[in-house]
Amino acid sequence: MEGASFVPHEILKRAKALAKGDHPSKAITLIGWQPPPPGFVRLNTYGSVLGNPGQTSAGGVLRDSNGNWIRGFSHNSGITNLLVAELWGLRDRLLLARDLKIRKLIFEIDAKSIVDLLKSKSIGNTDSHPYSALINDCRYLILSFEVASLHHAYWESNFCADLLA
Start and end of every RNase H type-1 domain (predicted)? Predict the structure, then answer.
């Protein structure tokens, strides 16, 4: 793990515990949609595919800090793969948020691969990716907001966007 300290006796202790069958207790995480802070809008997007590649759609919702519905959306993305459906859905929703003059945006997507692609350190590191144009469009749109943050969301907290897709 990056940033974790290397403590040999702790590693040995953990390895012995695992060998005995002593597994650490699982943490319980409550999952649900949370409103954004005052002055922010939360954007949840979701992509769906029937087959891979297959018929795709994308949907999402913009809500304010009181949980009020600003805009919902859904569209057919044609026949492609899930990664492309997720990227197109996000790109279109970022354009919508920008057109609605939203300045402070928190957006959540349950596709961890999209979060990882967009959060990678160097903008140039995806130039050889087959969908680099879509990835870079999303990155540049994100920069057009006064404040924007991208987060991975569990499917359970993204249920409304899932229904729209």
Answer: 44-165
- According to CATH, what is the number of the domain 33-164? 3.30.420.10
Q: Which backbone phi and psi does 130 adopt, to 5 degrees?
A: -60, -20
User: To 10 degrees, what angle do helices 112-119 and 82-99 make?
Assistant: 60
Helix-, strand-, coil-residue percentages of the chain, each rounded to 5:
40, 25, 35
* Residue 70 to residue 65: CA distance in whole angstroms: 11
Residues pairing with 88 in the sheet: none
So where are the chain's domains? 33-164
Tokens of 79: 């026949």
The mean predicted confidence, pLDDT, of the chain is 81
pLDDT in tens, 70-98: 998 888 888 998 888 889 888 988 999 99
| pLDDT tens-digit map of 28-68 | 665 677 889 999 999 988 888 888 889 988 888 899 999 99
Question: What residues form DSSP beta bridges with 49?
Answer: 56
**CA pair distance 85, 88, nearest whole angstrom:** 5
